[in-house]
Amino acid sequence: MRIAIVDESAARASIIEEGLSELADCDLVVITERRGMLARMAEIDPDIVLMNLGNPSRDMLEEYFAVSRALARPIAMFVDEADDEAIVASVEAGVSSYVVDGLAAGRIRPILDLAITRFNAFARLQSDLAEARGKLAERELVDKAKRILMQSKGLPEPKAYAELRKAAMDQGKRIVNIAEAVVTAHELMSGT
């Protein structure tokens, strides 16, 4: 596992390194420079990112949130003081763990595990949502094709669906592909 530790202070970064010293097969990369961080992250391609920001300014937080949004990785962010707006913004930016005043070597591993677990859970939710949206879009397309067949051929809904299903079986395609062809043909023929 490759872990990127982001901290402008090498001394503070060493606390995180100490907390991760017991991990086997772990490649730690410390980044102390803010300039060019996104390019550096792309080059490193970490599995997880631990950011220790101390007491960041709003501009500094925005920079790190931009990095968070661009990375599809678990991210744990350590700060010295609580800030409700920053917490909300960090969650929206994809930060898995936002830890206030919690930088201690003994806490690093559980926080790392939490960040990974939360990231994976959120990724599953996003995947499930994308799948549900895809199925809904397919259903809407099939319904639109049924309406076209019902209007153009004067068919009742079950017959229109049966025609779509039969065409799909005859052509060895999914019903949604046939529905898409019906809708496209209708749009071409009607000029809409």
UniProtKB/TrEMBL annotation:
Residues 122-183 form the ANTAR domain. InterPro entries: ANTAR, CheY-like_superfamily, Sig_transdc_resp-reg_antiterm, Sig_transdc_resp-reg_receiver, WH-like_DNA-bd_sf. Coiled coil: none annotated. It comes from the Bacteria. Signal peptide: none annotated. PROSITE patterns: ANTAR (PS50921), RESPONSE_REGULATORY (PS50110). Residues 2-116 form the Response regulatory domain. This is ANTAR domain-containing protein.
